[in-house]
Amino acid sequence: MYRDSRRLRLILALLILTSFTLITVDYRGGEGTALAGLRRGAATVVGPMQRAVTRVVRPIGNALSSVGDLGSLTDQVEDLRKENAELRNQLRQAEDVRRRSDELDRLLGASGGRGAEILPATVIADSPNNFEWTITVDRGARDGVREDMTVITGDGLVGRVLEVAGFTAQVLLVIDPQSAVGARLANAQRGLVSGNGLDPLTLELREPDAAVAKGDVVLTSDSGTYIGGIPIGVADTITRQPTLTKRVSVTPYVRYTALDIVGIILTAPRDTPAAPVRPTPPAPSPAARPSPAPTPATAGTPSPSLTPSPSPTPAG
Amino acid sequence: MTANRFLTICLFLITALLVQTTVLSRLDFLGAQPDLVLVVVVCLALTGGPGVGMVSGFGAGLLQDLLSDHTLGLLALVLCCIGYVAGIVRAYLDRLAITTPMLFVGVATAAGAVAFAALLALLGDPRVRPDALVRSVTLASLYDVVLTPFVFVAVSALSGRTDDADRRVG
């Protein structure tokens, strides 16, 4: 077949050249190029196959996954014992959990019957390598999913929609190092949550004197790409940085390696702090944000995901 | 290359990709996942030669690129080179004992992951972290080596032709 080694080397050179061309074009071009269409096309073709395979093998995968999680029987006993204690603890905290859940309902407008529209979606695939933390869900453009929509579970924030194909969508998880989420504490201190893969999240607070304690709840900020008021996690260790910021390690509520059903927020809830004061945000200057915390000194802090995009979440 | 053989190779790669994204990526043993697509590419190359290796590596890599978030063409480049080298290695070996593909897959996984990470870092992707890299590369190589015998037997049974008969396991 390919006995001729010169011809073989020619093909190899051609393939490598094609790779380099693709890398260059994609790296420079960004969204507008034909390559984006190619990506969508591939997702449209492979998506339904992944959905079919998932439907068949999900139970097997889950079984194997639990084996991988537990390791050995001793670990299993230990884990169950821990879980038992945890459940007992949870039972005690049930009242608090219910309150929090009600709060979330109220924030999302779900209980009010108006406002937030949440589309449930099943996870059909995860990212195929060890560097990216994304998931693919079985809802796409046909179901009204658009880029940058906020994705949640009952526990908290999952991420945002990265790319949309016809029947599927790719979601960037909060734990991906590429992810940056505008966040706030319950006392309105603002910061930026970034992912570290499987390690806990990092919250960078803009005020070095910000009052934060272990156990504080971290929520999404009311402005920016994400819809405000969604719980992300709980503050853990706090270290003061030499760069005049405070760094907080955050344990997320959501278990990102075992996602099954998620909700995509199609429409932002009305009458929440998330609603912008002005219908169209002016120039992308963080200082123009309706911020309850008076932080003039740090108004210019660069924060990618806090930059108000034209109108990511039209209220109502 | 006959149409039949071409279809068999495509089938192998698509199956590997589907299993990779739907099953293996959910397992996450100790924070790393095996790379079944790479194992299949290496096994195809070891049974079919450098031509089959580089073309199937390029195709599988490109498809993975299209389904991921990183810059397009990176995995196509890495897997194409791995497939070619695996095909060349095969020409220098008289017999393929099962340990050869296992050894080669282990090395290829580590080399491929490091090359991919280096390319990502070169393009300014913040996702590459040296400490996590060492762990995930070591584990992924280990998992891939374990997967290899099964994949190799399947690949050589289904795509091996008469002239490859003496190269089979045994």
Blueprint of the fold:
The complex is a heterodimer of chains A (about 325) and B (about 170).
Chain A lengths: L4 H25 L4 H37 L2 H20 L1 H15 L8 E10 L7 E4 L12 E3 L4 E8 L4 E5 L6 E6 L4 E7 L2 E7 L11 E4 L10 E10 L5 E7 L8 E7 L49
Antiparallel strand pairs in A: 1-2, 1-12, 2-5, 3-4, 3-12, 4-5, 6-7, 6-9, 7-8, 8-11, 9-10, 10-11
Chain B lengths: L2 H25 L8 H13 L1 H18 L6 H18 L7 H24 L7 H30 L11
Can you walk through the features of this model?
The complex is a heterodimer of chains A (about 325) and B (about 170). Helix content of chain A is about 30%, strand content about 25%. Chain A has helices spanning about 5-30, 35-70, 75-90, 95-110; strands at about 115-125, 135, 150, 155-165, 170-175, 180-185, 190-195, 200-205, 215-220, 230-240, 245-250, 260-265. A 6-stranded antiparallel β-barrel of chain A has the order 1-2-5-4-3-12. In chain A, strand 10 and strand 11 form a beta hairpin. In chain B, about 55% of the residues are buried. In chain B, helix 5 packs across helix 6 (about 130-160). Chain B has about 170 residues and is mainly alpha-helical. The longest helix of chain B is centred in the last third of the chain and has 30 residues, at about 130-160. Helix content of chain B is about 75%, strand content about 0%. The model of chain B is unreliable at about 160-170 (pLDDT under 50). At the A-B interface, helix 1, helix 2 and strand 1 of A face helix 1, helix 3, helix 4, helix 5 and helix 6 of B.
